[in-house]
Amino acid sequence: MTAINGDWLPKGWRTYDDVHGRKNTVTGTVLVWPKLASKDLDRSAEISVFLPPSLAKALKAETRNVRRYPVFYFHDGQNVFDDHTSHAGEWRVDETLQALARDGIEAIAVGIPNGHEARFDEYNPYRGRTPYTGRRVVGGKANEYLDWLTGEIKPLIDRTFPTDPSRDATGTIGSSLGGLISLYAMVRHP
């Protein structure tokens, strides 16, 4: 996956293999921004990006790519591309996008890993007791999470890759609480 000397990589980005080793289930070209901080959430995360085949080919060949791509932001991003990092099985987004590309449908996919214990806080706009024990107050940090997504993550992706930054070409995807924050994102940032 890495070109000679990795010269084709956008500045600051690394290949998935360089960060996670070759024992992974990633298909296609996935790049990693090793650490992106959120001051409001008091954490950092590794951001993973699947590049459509035509974009990866253009970058590696150092040719100008004039096409702009839609972007999907995946919550629980550790589950998106690699079975080894996933909580309960890879979602196979990279394999699906590779297959769609053969039909001319291409998009950039961004995986944003959850904050583990903070997942209930970051993906939930409402504060309340934990649904399992009722002991700990959780939730209420969805606005801070979405501010990180729209104020730090999306601008990083938009300035690095040829994205179509329009509303109609930008989406968020998740399951369970990731679905909740996706729906909330649509309401808060239509």
Write up this protein.
This protein is α/β, with parallel strands linked by helices and 190 residues long. The strands form two sheets. A six-stranded mixed beta sheet has the order 1-2-3-5-4-8. The protein has a two-stranded antiparallel sheet with strand order 6-7. The protein is built from six helices and eight strands; from the N terminus they run E-H-E-E-H-E-H-E-H-E-E-H-E-H. It has helices spanning 16-20, 53-60, 93-101, 119-122, 142-160, 177-188; strands at 14-15, 29-38, 43-51, 71-75, 108-112, 128-129, 137-138, 170-173. The radius of gyration is 17 Å and the shape is globular.
Present the secondary structure layout.
Layout: E1 14-15, H1 16-20, E2 29-38, E3 43-51, H2 53-60, E4 71-75, H3 93-101, E5 108-112, H4 119-122, E6 128-129, E7 137-138, H5 142-160, E8 170-173, H6 177-188
Parallel strand pairs: 4-5, 4-8
Antiparallel strand pairs: 1-2, 2-3, 3-5, 6-7
